[in-house]
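Table S2 (continued). Query chain:
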Amino acid sequence: MTNKVKKISLLGATGSIGRSTLDIVTRFPERYQVVALGGGRNISELSAQAQRFRPQLLAVQDETGAEELEQALNAAGLKIPIMVGQPGAIAVATLSEANIVVAAMVGAVGLEPTHAALKAGKNVALANKESMVMAGRLLNEVASANKVAILPLDSEHSALWQALNGEPESGVEKLILTASGGPFREFSLAQMAEVTPEQAMRHPRWDMGPKITIDSATMMNKALEIIEARWLFDMAPEKIEVLVHPQSIVHSLVEYRDGSVLAQLGLPDMRLPIAYALSYPERLPLDLPKLNLAETGQLDFFAADEERFPALALVRKALASGDSGAIALNAANEIAVDRFRAGEIGFLEIAKMVAGVLDEIVAQEFSTLPQILDFDAKVRQSLLNSGN
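Corresponding output:
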């Protein structure tokens, strides 16, 4: 056990992962100190967090939010520097005092701060799966060059990390990501065609933000997680599978070549994987509800239905196009989800829109961050110009 306090920069502070991270910090003040916070448009929440944790630096999405936050802090008698936009997020990620960065931003905007944190020699506890989807190879190279670690925060990837437990890749037969199946696992295609954004936001197991919740409903989140697992664990994509498990108790499994299968189980509470990443290789004595298998009773598992959830087929198509396919998959999905939430397209049209983009992609590999960001921007602009 070490007595050294870990100093945390937290990006995505006002989201569900950010709030859960701060809950862990609150429970173990002798272990953790928050030195920087980055948030989005929930200024009242960020202000309350700043007043409680007294960080050295704050970052917000836009100038209007910065003005509102400054006024709230002034009223509380606090003077904390506030930065705006991507420069602000990067400043939070690279703050010299921080020795670990929790990257919990949602979407492609998380890539640049995550890259900057690794380049600055910070360990990154990563919940922003889009970073690994868009630039997994590059981020692994940067982490290795700077002798730092990418620690998975997603419950599924944390489960794989724990079940792998340092085993050599040669002994692994497959990685099995579990999925709850979301709220529409038993819907017909006709029913799914009528799904509203409000319905898609009602996840049966997890409390997540709107984009991730809709990704869970389409199972696009699982498609993205396949790509993330490919890079986090240096695993060939064909050795990564998805299994539907409605109870969300078994978070993922590893099948070894001798036939053994190791799984990580726990109640669906993001504080468990967050605490594991922050305390690794220790485990914290969390005073949280414990899993009682006798009370849980039956655990169900089903094969994933690719007709109902075409995202799982689309990810194979994306992977066949290399870096460009993964970047296009993510960009098209983000725009499609925004359009669905705005009522411009139907639920089933999310996957159709992504498929249309992948049909036009030429396979390419990228070696630098500017190349990746440029291609991502071109995909998005093409979609906006076409109106598709």
